[in-house]
Amino acid sequence: GDSVTQMEGPVTLSEEAFLTINCTYTATGYPSLFWYVQYPGEGLQLLLKATKADDKGSNKGFEATYRKETTSFHLEKGSVQVSDSAVYFCALASGSARQLTFGSGTQLTVLP
Amino acid sequence: ETGVTQTPRHLVMGMTNKKSLKCEQHLGHNAMYWYKQSAKKPLELMFVYNFKEQTENNSVPSRFSPECPNSSHLFLHLHTLQPEDSALYLCASSRELADPSYEQYFGPGTRLTVT
Question: Scanning A66, B25, B47, B111, which has the fewest C-beta atoms within 10 Å of its C-beta?
Fold first, then answer.
């Protein structure tokens, strides 16, 4: 079945540091890939997505590239801010499952 | 503002109580979902509805009973819950199930505590 493996957290960075959160997946066919973010006390919000190989999703300075050859969708940001502190979830949706499969989430804390 | 609202935001109930969680989406979507989010566990999909019809029940105990009267509203009826059911219950919607590229939009969740 489909699965998503995410980098274990928590991750603690200083403001303006470079961020990478690794995400790899297993799926049949050609899934769509997503990054969701959950701020404290809130539900999940879509951060970015990519629907086919080599697509790059981007939003709010975050980027992730759909790499079919390595089955990866790593999240990156060049310079994090305190306001980026949240839990980040990698997810996929494949045509066969017709539902989102989530990774376990990575807690990011950015210190001033 | 995500377009998906949930009420109540917080709920404390005893094991013998009956309560309901409500979700409403204002996005014109046709698919709706219930998820359970427990501390230190991955998000668990509970139920899926597409055009008001239940398409998925991920082995959820019968003490959780969903209801979808129309494409905009989704309820989760709770009765005889256990303390381990304490969690954040998230509702989500998407345009429809057929296309996996359609993202899901989440509500803020209901924080449930079973005493």
Answer: B111
